[in-house]
Structures are given as structure tokens and as C-alpha cells.
Write a structure and sequence with these properties.
The complex is a heterodimer of chains A (416) and B (119). Chain A has 416 residues and is an alpha/beta fold. Chain A is built from nine helices and 29 strands. The chains are: A alpha/beta (416), B alpha+beta (119). The interface between A and B is medium-sized, with 34 and 30 residues.
């Protein structure tokens, strides 16, 4: 049993797989992936719908197919994998404690660690829906697992709260399996999901989308018997007199994802409250040297293709850290201003080459412009024809441009 | 003029198409023009679902049509999979039903599933 690895990757989903493969390609030979499930692939295994891989593989794949491409790439690389292995603790000096039925309690040391634990769903408790507490209220992802992996149907008459992508995908999935999806209810005045999912999951099946509405009551003793849906005002407060009753047996929640950072917090890694993920530099290194983060544990992505790309950058950076150690000439901070909710990375090394910055806008924009400033100086402008909070934005800043900046750059968005 | 939101990729371009000339605007790539044309004349969708898999460690095998099928038959096609059983082992891409629902499309497995050791 080895006790030291050049790199330990925590999580064997799309981020962990791409990170490990990239680290190998960038010269590391001694890599371990720790995965708590019995198989690799993470959430992709239950995402049986297609639409994955258009950017990365230039073809349209289902989730399991996308995962399998990466799992197959592991073959012959010598990358070690331990499944059924739960990481209990990581420390700043890159000690990883884990437990598995096969090996018992493990204490491992690593030259670098990549955090790739993904995210989990917000539940009813997180949004405090009034009403009774009967059976039949599930997160959309839990329902997806029951239907697609376990083969259980979770309900017959369904109301979906939230219009995140998983909720939209499940609206279609439940319909195709014979359920009646009565409504998708979204508290915001716009959908949180991708436009294409609104079209092919709701509109294709005539499922109404109620924007600026929320569930204000759940009824039922043993099983859900019905819900009340109310319109909300601009402060998201229910408007009396607008109630609509739905006779349903199931409520699916698609109300947001939370990066799963218990291990990161415990290790003392600073977390950005806007992303709920670690603060990172352009190499995806957290504030703790030698510990990197990528995928949904860092910030919630809309597309797995972007997770794979990000994870590959983390893998390359971790390999460079193991070979060369930490070295840089200080940082520039990346700040947000008008209408930009967060950025990743949150800081950029002063000697960085071209840097990609990912962010989300706070509301919907049509003809618009993204501005990059340093103090009063406008460094760059990027035009967009459409931006929405549900769609991650990306800009690339070349070194020549970054060299003109002071100690901070600020990203903002406005109408053109 | 009719407007469609292109679903060929996650970008979701809003494509306007002229019903008589089939000229398009608003698409940012040729796939958008093609999509709007298809959506106007012959809309299609890829069906993804699952079937029962026996002698395996998991209970369901994910499947898809290996090309899009006409949109009006998607719901019937999903129903046709009810109760369908296959046997492990199965490989990704393996054809399970040729000319599914009388279309050009085959129904294929989308996950490689090994045989259970005790099966």
C-alpha cells in the first residue's frame, strides 16, 4: 500500500477524471483518484439525456457516454483509482485521510491535491416551503437517480419548483415515463436553466412555466396531495389572491446547487461566499499552496464540457506545482461591479500569461457589453447579444492587456 | 417569419426563419439555419431513456436513438421501451433494436455494463 502520491484527486466525476488525465499528460506518474461511489463518472451516470460533449468532443453524447470516454482514457495510464472510498479529512500540509471497506482507514500524503468533489442540491429545508411534510417531495437529482439508475418511478402527477436544468430535464423524463407534469414554477422572472432545455423539455410537451411564482403551501398527510402556487412581487413576496391549486402527488425541487466544500473548510481553505467554492488564482490554486480546485466544487457550471476544460487546467497546474514548487511575483485581485455576481478566478498572478475569467451576470441582458477596468482605465470591452444568470460567461485577457492593469481589475456588465 | 430557439448546442440562438424563402437570421452558425429549417418542415428529437438490464450489478441500462427520430413519435417510442429487457454484458454503442419504430434510427446502449459475477 503506497502512502505517498505526487497527486491525489478527490472525486472521480468529470472534474476529477479530467484533472487526473491532464496531470498525467503534464508529466506526473504517480496519481491517485479517490471516489466515494462504487463507480467512476459521478453525476454523469444518471444524466442519461444527450447534449454533452459538443464543445469537448464535437459530438453529442449522453452523460454515461461522456463519462466513459474519460474512464477509458485512464486505461494504461497507471493512474490509481480507489472507489468506495470516502475522504474524511484533508490538511493544509496535504495529508489525506480516507476510509474504504477494502483498505480500512488510510492516511496518505500528496505532493499536490485537487479538490473535485462536485456539488449537491439545495433541499426543501434551504428554502423553507410552508406546509406539511409528507412523502413525495424530492430534489430533482434524487428523482433522476431513482428513475434512471434504480428504475423506480417517483410519482404520477408532478409539480416542479425551480427551473434549473435538472428540474427541466426531469420534467421531460417524468413525462416520457408516463407521469403528468402539471407545472414548472420559478420564483424569478426568468428561468435558471439553459434556453434549449426550456424548449425541448417544457415547450415540446406543453408543460407550462410559471415565472415569478412559487409554492406557498404543500398539503398531504402521508403523501403529497396538492400544492398551492402563488404569484410573487418584485421582492419575491407572495401576492394574496393569486393562488392556483394543483392536485399532485409529487414535488420536485430544482432550486440550486451548493458546492460540497466541507473538506475544504475543514482544511482552512478560504471560501468565496459568492460561489460557495474556494477562492482561486488563474491556475485554480486555492489560497493554500498545492491544493487546487475544479468543477462544481469550485463554482457551479452549466456545461460539463467547461468542467472538463477547467479540470484539465487544474491538472496541468498541479503537475507544475509538484515539479517546480510555488513561485510568483504577487497577485492582482479580480473584483466585480455592476451586474456581475462573481468571478473565477478571484485573483491573477502578476506573471500570468493569457487568463480566462468566468463569471455570471445577475440579470438578463440583450445587446450588452462586458467591461474590464483597472481603476478608471478601461482595459477591454466584450460585446454580447444575450447574457443570462443561467449561462456562464467567459472572457479571455491576454498578457499585454493584464500588464496595463494595476493591483486590481474590475469586471462589469451593462446594456450596449 | 417564425422564431425558433436553436437546441443544437447549449448556446440557444434565437433564429428567425422566413416560411417561404427559408432564409434565416439570428443564427451564429450553419447548424442554426439547418435547425430552423428542420423545425419548420420536419422536427426531430433524439430519444434517451432506460431499459431493464438483467444479470448486471445495476438495474437499468441507459439507451438512445443513434439519430434523431420524428418529434411526433417520441412519446410513443418512449412507451415502446416499457418492459423491454436486455442481458448484461452490454457495451456502449451496441445496437439493441435496429430500425427502431420503423425509422432509420437504431436503439443503442449508452453505458457499458458488465455481467454480475454470480450471474
Amino acid at each position: 500500500m503506497k502512502e505517498y502520491y505526487e497527486l491525489i484527486v478527490i472525486g472521480g466525476g468529470p472534474a476529477g477524471l479530467a484533472a487526473a488525465i491532464s496531470a498525467k499528460e503534464n508529466g506526473l506518474n504517480d496519481i491517485l483518484i479517490l471516489e466515494r461511489d462504487q463507480v467512476l463518472g459521478g453525476i454523469l451516470n444518471q444524466c442519461i439525456h444527450n447534449g454533452f460533449g459538443l464543445h469537448h468532443f464535437k459530438e453529442e453524447l449522453t452523460g454515461p457516454e461522456y463519462a466513459e470516454r474519460f474512464i477509458r482514457e485512464l486505461d494504461g495510464t497507471g493512474i490509481d483509482v480507489m472507489t468506495d472510498t470516502m475522504v474524511l479529512e484533508i490538511t493544509k500540509d496535504r495529508t489525506v485521510c480516507a476510509v474504504s471497506p477494502k483498505y480500512g482507514y488510510l492516511t496518505l500524503k500528496a505532493g499536490a491535491v485537487i479538490l473535485a468533489m462536485g456539488c449537491r442540491e439545495r433541499t426543501r429545508g434551504a428554502i423553507s416551503i410552508p406546509g406539511t411534510r409528507p412523502a413525495g417531495i424530492l430534489t430533482a437529482g434524487a428523482a433522476q437517480r431513482f428513475v434512471n439508475i434504480e428504475g423506480y418511478m417517483v410519482g404520477k402527477r408532478v409539480v416542479i419548483l425551480g427551473s434549473g436544468d435538472i428540474g427541466l430535464i426531469m420534467a421531460r423524463r417524468m413525462t416520457l415515463e408516463g407521469a403528468k407534469v402539471l407545472a414548472c414554477v420559478e420564483v424569478m422572472p426568468y428561468s435558471g436553466g439553459l434556453m434549449r432545455n426550456i424548449v425541448q423539455c417544457l415547450e415540446d410537451f406543453g408543460i407550462p412555466l410559471y415565472l415569478s411564482h412559487t409554492i406557498t403551501d404543500i398539503r398531504g398527510k402521508r403523501r403529497v396531495e396538492g400544492v398551492t402556487v402563488s404569484k410573487v412581487d418584485e421582492n419575491r413576496r407572495p401576492i394574496p389572491g393569486t393562488e392556483i391549486e394543483f392536485d399532485c402527488d409529487t414535488v420536485l425541487l430544482s432550486v440550486g446547487l451548493i458546492p460540497e466544500n466541507e473538506l475544504s473548510r475543514q482544511a482552512g481553505i478560504p471560501i468565496d461566499p459568492r460561489t460557495n467554492g474556494p477562492m482561486v488564482d488563474e491556475s485554480l490554486q486555492t489560497q493554500v499552496p498545492g491544493i487546487f480546485a475544479c468543477g462544481n466544487v469550485l463554482h457551479v457550471h452549466d456545461l460539463v464540457d467547461y468542467v472538463s476544460d477547467e479540470a484539465a487546467r487544474a491538472g496541468a497546474a498541479a503537475a507544475a506545482f509538484v515539479k517546480n514548487g510555488a513561485a510568483n511575483e504577487g497577485y492582482r485581485l479580480v473584483k466585480t461591479a455592476d451586474n456581475v455576481g462573481y468571478t473565477v478566478p478571484q485573483k491573477i498572478a502578476k506573471d500570468a500569461q493569457q487568463v480566462q475569467i468566468f463569471f455570471r451576470v445577475r440579470r438578463i441582458f440583450e445587446e450588452s457589453v462586458i467591461e474590464v477596468r483597472s481603476g478608471e482605465t478601461l482595459l477591454a470591452k466584450f460585446k454580447r447579444t444575450h447574457m443570462a444568470p443561467g449561462e456562464m460567461e467567459r472572457i479571455a485577457l491576454p498578457k499585454v492587456l493584464l500588464d496595463k492593469a494595476g493591483d486590481e481589475i474590475t469586471i462589469s456588465a451593462k446594456e450596449a | 417569419m417564425k422564431q425558433f430557439v436553436c437546441i443544437r448546442c447549449p448556446r440557444g440562438c434565437r433564429v428567425q426563419i422566413d416560411e417561404t424563402t427559408l432564409e434565416t437570421t439570428g443564427n451564429s452558425c450553419p447548424r442554426g439555419a439547418e435547425y430552423a429549417k428542420d423545425e419548420l418542415t420536419n422536427p426531430t428529437r433524439t430519444l434517451t431513456s432506460t431499459v431493464i438490464v438483467e444479470n448486471a450489478v445495476i438495474r437499468r441500462c441507459p439507451v438512445k436513438t443513434d439519430r434523431p427520430i420524428p418529434k411526433p413519435i417520441v412519446e410513443d417510442a418512449a412507451k415502446a421501451l416499457d418492459g423491454m429487457k436486455i442481458e448484461a454484458p452490454v457495451r456502449t454503442g451496441q445496437i439493441l433494436v435496429e430500425h427502431f419504430m420503423g425509422t432509420e434510427a437504431n436503439l443503442v446502449a449508452t453505458r457499458t455494463i458488465g455481467k454480475r459475477e454470480d450471474a
